[in-house]
Amino acid sequence: MTSYATQARSAGGCLSGPGVAGQEGWAAPDARRKLQLLLAGIWLLDAVLQFQAFMFGKGFAQMLAGTAPGNPAVIAGPISWSARLIAQHGVVTNALFATIQLLIALGIAFRPTVRLALGLSIAWSLAVWWLGEGLGGVLSGAGSPVNGAPGAVIIYALLAVLLWPPRRERPASFVAGRSTGPAVARALWLVLWGSLAYLALQPATTARGAISGMISGMAGGEPGWLAGIDRHLAAFLATHGGAAAVVLAVVLAIVAVGVYLPRPAVRAVLVVAIVTAAVIWLAEGLGGLLTGGGTDPNSGPLLALLALTYWPLAAAPLAAAPLARPEKA
Amino acid sequence: MAGQTWLADTFAGVMLLTAAYCLARLVISWRQHRRTDHQVDAIHVLMGVAMAGMLVPALRVFWAGGWEVIFGAGTVWFGWQAIREYRDRAALGRLRPHHAQHALGCAAMVYMFAAVTTVAKAASGSGTGNMGGAARYPTLALVLGIALFGYVVWTADRLPALARVPALVARAVAVPSPAVVPAGSADALDASPGAANDGRSPQRHGAPPLSPRLAACVEIAMGVTMGYALILML
Predict the structure, then answer these.
(1) Is a pLDDT exceeding 90 seen at residue A136?
(2) Once rounded to an integer, what is the mean pLDDT over residues B86-105?
(3) A91 interaction partners in chain B (CB closer than 8 Å)
(4) Proportion of chain A above pLDDT 90, given as a percent
(5) Which tens digit of pLDDT belongs to each residue from A47-85?
């Protein structure tokens, strides 16, 4: 069996410069670690987007307040309160938000703090899902897969749970199953993608011109190539919106149940999930990243990353192998 | 500046600190014969000063177009180094894409200066405006920013693999010459000419290298700040 020290040395080959590979107990990134690093990268992008000028102004607070209408009073009240607070202290609160996200990103990327950072990301994501996204519009009836429902930020929390480094690995043929167990991981997948399918059949998506309006609304401020794609897509869906919503719902439902299929079929389903996530991301206008007002990349990249955590691994399932503890010599 | 002034000042301050630190590394390496990557430290000095000037106009120290030439040359140089590293992969049995990161950083600097100049000329015709907002080819800014963030998390992940200075001092005492290091060991990686200073400048055997962890922290700070500057240009 390869020792951690040996792994550290072989991994040291990826590095350069004086003093490389000096620590024993450091292993080359495995599949989970690579996915954690992707998550850290998205958090880092999120953090830097939060540092944009727009986020320090009144517009950001108004955007947050805009998620309250339609929600039950018990949900909407705290949203309005936090939006008022942010409006009054925009610079301080936004600097704090961006710094927290930056710490989460670097904390996930830095191995000794990965658990702390993932735990913080779960708490932070849940708070933002409520106070910043109005629970993704799920209760207000405004939620649609095309506008990011059930909320990009809740997928951050889900990813943190599925990519959590456990003290003892659970036997599973995919990364997500090794933290929570395969049954729980598959159930979480079913709930998320099933809820997306359900939302695709709600009036916010199926109503005449609903999808078209959402997509054309994203085009403002985007560079020409992306605005062109969104405008063409919106024009097409202006007349075929209802049918497109049904097709989307069927695809999402197939993806939802697909993780229970045999291994080769799972791969095909996950490819469909990634392609669907890419199409959703295009419809989301890449989350408004290129407009100077995007707070995050929206749900598309997170759904794709989530799909990768369910990708069947080539290696045999682990049998309760220890993690993150160097072998004794 | 399209962003908050205090924030730009903070990032500029961080950049000046990193530039000063990298300059100190070069001086210490020269005076005490301690190993460091001179090319990388030198480009970080230039990047730190250039970034500070980009974020805070009062800190600009160069003529229009000067930085583009410098970082354009840096892109070519580090790009060539990265290609050589890629070619050496088969011979060494490992990939060390160290310089690709710096080629990317230099390319991002060229983009930012070119975009700033273009926007400034379009806005005022003077060419002296500051960065921020509505740069040409914003998609390229996003792609460069995401690539830099990728390198930031990649570097942060490997921080625990980098030895602390006391360990390096102990190793320098225990391993007086690269010639006695077993090939293929982690120490060999450390002591190999390519890992230390590309074998171009003589170093005293036994002298410990300068802190690799702090060098990695410099790269993280540079990556985050450059990514911030690029995102401001969207």
Answers:
(1) no
(2) 74
(3) 4
(4) 55
(5) 999 999 888 888 888 888 989 998 999 999 999 999 999
**Domain for residue A324, yes or no?**
no
Q: Is residue B99 part of a domain?
A: yes
Q: How many CB atoms lie within 10 A of CB A308?
A: 18
Backbone angles phi, psi at A322, to 5 degrees: -70, 155
Asked if B196 lies within 8 A of A18 by C-beta distance, the reply is yes
Give the orientation angle of helix B38-55 with respect to helix B98-124, to 10 degrees.
20
pLDDT at position A218:
81
Question: Looking at residue A17, what is its pLDDT?
Answer: 47
Distance of alpha carbon A146 from alpha carbon A216, whole angstroms? 11
List of chain A residues whose C-beta atoms are within 8 Å of the C-beta of residue B102: none
Tokens of A81: 């309160």
Confidence tier at A320 by pLDDT (50, 70, 90): very low
- Residue A155 forms part of a structural domain: yes
Whether residue B11 lies inside any domain: the answer is: yes
Which residues form the domain of A192?
29-309
CA distance A218 to A231: 9
Distances in whole angstroms, Cα of residue A155 to Cα of each of A85, A148, A231, A286: 26, 10, 28, 16
**Which residues form the domain of B201?**
5-162+183-232
Whether chain B has a CB inside 8 Å of the CB on A9: the answer is yes
Cis status, amide bond into A150, omega within 30 of 0: yes
3-state class of A105 per DSSP? helix
Residues of chain A with pLDDT > 70, as a percent, come to 88
Confidence at residue A26, expressed as pLDDT on a 0 to 100 scale = 66
For B149, which of A11, A45, A112 is closest by C-beta distance?
Answer: A45
pTM assigned to the model: 0.85
Question: Would B113 be classed as within a structural domain?
Answer: yes
Q: CB-based contacts of A275: which residues, under 8 Å, 6+ apart?
A: none
Q: What's residue B119's pLDDT?
A: 56
Split into its structural domains, chain A has a count of: 1
Q: How many CB atoms lie within 10 A of CB A224?
A: 8
**Which 8-state DSSP code applies to residue A200?**
H
Segment B82-100 shows an average pLDDT of 72
Q: Per residue in A246-292, pLDDT tens?
A: 999 999 999 999 999 998 899 999 999 999 999 999 988 898 888 87
Query: CB neighbours (10 Å) of residue B214?
Result: 15
Instruction: Identify whether B102 is part of a domain.
Output: yes
Name the residue facing A29 among B157, B168, B231 (closest C-beta).
B157
In this structure, is residue A5 part of a structural domain?
A: no
What value does the CA radius of gyration of chain B take, rounded to a whole number of Å?
19
Nearest to A301 by CA among A316, A280, A317: A280
Q: Is residue A316 part of a domain?
A: no
Beta bridge partners of A168: A322
Into how many domains does chain B fold? 1
Whether B94 sits inside 8 A of A223 (CB atoms) is no
A169 DSSP assignment:
P
Inter-chain CB proximity B168 and A18 less than 8 Å = yes
